[in-house]
Amino acid sequence: MSFFTYCPNCKSTHFTFENNFRFQCNDCDFVYYHNIAAAVAVIFTFEEAVLFTVRNVDPDKGKLDLPGGFIDPKETAEEAACREIKEELGITVSTQDLRYITTSPNDYLYKNVPYRTMDIFYECPLVSKTVSVTAKDEIQELIWLNKKEINLERIGFKSIRKVIGEFYCQ
Ligand SMILES: [Zn+2]
Questions:
Q1: Are both 78 and 12 inside the same structural domain?
Q2: Whether residues 108 and 125 fall in one domain
Q3: I need a surface site. Which of 46, 73, 89, 148 has the fewest CB within 10 A?
Q4: Count of domains for the chain
Q5: How far is the CA of 28 from the centre of ligand 1 (A)?
């Protein structure tokens, strides 16, 4: 099912939008690529523990997540990570504190628009477990979990489940 009802250029209803990726109008020349959106996620660690957030908004409200979010236009991935950390947790982190881990694709349905993301993962070791939530509208609470006690089923997004499973749950 398409999330466009009409061609945004000529209002025609004759178009193809296969897999919600390449929109092509059959009546005018309009073409639109619903490209992959880049996002960042930060894995804070302290000794053998990993910091998770509990989502307070859909999709996946109540499930475990990581601090992070979409990259804004003209930002680097590291700048986006530092900005999101500041907004969500009130912590100032420098781009050099972030260690690149890997990337993983995700699906993100928001208000009926099916976004496809490429999530970029960084690790950031902390010197204590003292962290608190700044963005209480987005995050219910923070949970530190020892690597051995992480239940992957409680993680909402498949990209995060995959990376935590592969890199932090041996
Ligand atoms: Zn058109």
A1: no
A2: yes
A3: 73
A4: 2
A5: 4
